[in-house]
Structures are given as structure tokens and as C-alpha cells.
Amino acid sequence: MPPKTAPLLQGTLELIVLQFLRAEPTNGYDLTLRIQATSNDVLNVNAGSLYPALYRLEARGLITFAWQATENGRQAKVYSLTRAGTKELAEQRESWLRFSGALTAILKVT
Question: Domains (ranges, CATH) in the chain?
Fold first, then answer.
């Protein structure tokens, strides 16, 4: 049976985007494919969610972009993390790890 897709928890998409951009700069389309592949098809982010998140991150100075030619000769925005984005990612990761650890402890209660 194929894995079920899961809805993203509020606030997690920006953390996911920052984490992937930490690894390497990428365009929006490739970002959606990487999220889907890495999550084993559990997370499926559509353009209607991803691009507003990218615009919010850009407006906050956490990511930047450069136009680059794709393999088929088109121009695509390739996003990368800024120094402020790296700092924000570290803070969000720490917060998420505390939260998920607490939730894991609660879910182990019998």
C-alpha cells in the first residue's frame, strides 16, 4: 500500500524549505520533488503552498535568489539561504527538536 500523504503542520513548511536550502541552492520545482522524495511521498507540497512560503522567507531576508538557466534553456529562480536564514534555521531546528521530543515522550505514555 502506498504511503498516505500527511498535511503539513502549521509553520513547518518554512523550516523544511530552510533545511533543504541549507544543503544546496535550488529552484521551487526541484524543492517540491526533494521534499516528496525525502519524505517517501508522505509530504506533498504544492505550488500554492510553496511559493508563498518562499516569498515570505525572501521578504524576511532569510533566503535570496538568482536567475539561472535550466537544462531546457529557460530561466528559473534558484533560491539559497542567507546568513540570517542560517541563523533562523538553527533556532527553528532547536525549537522543533524540543517540541518533537516532548511530543514523543507524551505519546509513549500508556
Answer: 12-107 (1.10.10.10)
Residue type, 26: T
Q: What is the pLDDT of residues 15-60, one digit of tens each?
A: 999 999 999 999 999 999 999 999 999 998 999 999 999 999 999 9
3-state secondary structure 36-104: HHHCCCCCCCCHHHHHHHHHHHHHCCCEEEEEEECCCCCEEEEEEECHHHHHHHHHHHHHHHHHHHHHH
pTM assigned to the model: 0.88
Q: What is the separation of C-alpha 51 from the centre of its chain, rounded to a whole number of angstroms?
A: 11
Question: Is 58:64 a contact under the CB 8 Å cutoff?
Answer: yes
The C-alpha cell of 23 is what? 544543503
